[in-house]
Design goal:
A hairpin with an 8-residue loop joins strand 1 and strand 2. The protein is about 45% helix and about 15% strand. Strands 3-2-1-4-5 form a 5-stranded mixed sheet. It has 9 helices and 5 strands, in the order αββαβααββααααα. It starts with 7 loop residues before the first helix and ends with a helix. The chain folds into 2 domains: about 150 residues, Nucleotidyltransferase, domain 5, CATH 3.30.420; about 45 residues.
Length: about 210
């Protein structure tokens, strides 16, 4: 049974006098192409949004509708990302953290606490709590996951126009069978992650002329 996230974790900090709790989450870590995108969201204590849950449990249409609702009521929200080049340089885990720190830095409201999904974010000086499956449990993290997913999906759809033939508008850069066929046929494009083995191997094949 799929249930909506709650304010259970936020409430612990609110009752202790911390009014601004930021939820942060990232999307796209497993993709072969495109940036990793993070969002940070600070919600008010009273939020009446149905289906505020992990973005993966929503349809694209639901995510877009709910993202608009979140932006309308949030005390603050922001996007951060790390480019494919940065992912290749520092590895995906560190790029995830970089994108999340950038999202937090972009908030127009001063936050006091950060709730993150799964892992604590290095380099923060405020209070934070890492929550396993946080995007399913915390409304703030769920809101961040939805905002990030909608933003990244739209970005990858735009990349389809710039780099046609890979199917970015459909699979959003994930390593689907369709994407891998296109990658092996066309070779990688500038937004592919060359540190990922399917991309690296396809590049090597193109260099050898064995496409």
């Amino acid at each position: 049974m799929i249930v909506d996230a709650t304010f259970e974790f936020e409430e612990k900090f609110w009752v202790s006098g911390y009014d601004h709790v930021a939820g942060v989450d990232e999307v796209g870590a497993g993709c072969l192409a495109g940036p990793v995108v993070a969002a940070a969201v600070v919600l008010p204590r009273e939020v009446d949004i149905n289906k505020l849950r992990d973005s993966k449990m929503l349809s694209a249409m639901q995510r877009e509708k709910i993202a608009d609702q979140i932006k309308a009521v949030a005390l603050g929200w922001a996007i951060g990302f790390a480019s494919p080049e940065e992912i290749d340089q520092i590895n995906i885990r560190q790029a995830d953290f970089l994108a999340m720190r950038r999202a937090l830095a972009g908030l127009s409201i001063e936050y006091q606490v950060v709730l993150s999904d799964g892992f604590a974010i290095p380099g923060l000086v405020c209070l934070q709590e890492a929550i396993i499956k946080g995007d399913q449990k915390s409304k703030s993290i769920a809101a961040a996951s939805i905002i990030a997913k909608v933003y990244r999906d739209a970005l990858m759809t735009e990349y389809e126009k710039e780099f046609p033939g890979y199917g970015f508008a459909k699979h959003k850069g994930y390593g689907t069978a369709e994407h891998c066929v296109a990658l092996n046929t066309l070779g990688p494009c500038p937004i592919h992650r060359f540190s990922y083995s399917p991309v690296r191997e396809s590049s090597a094949r193109k260099c050898r002329g064995n496409s």
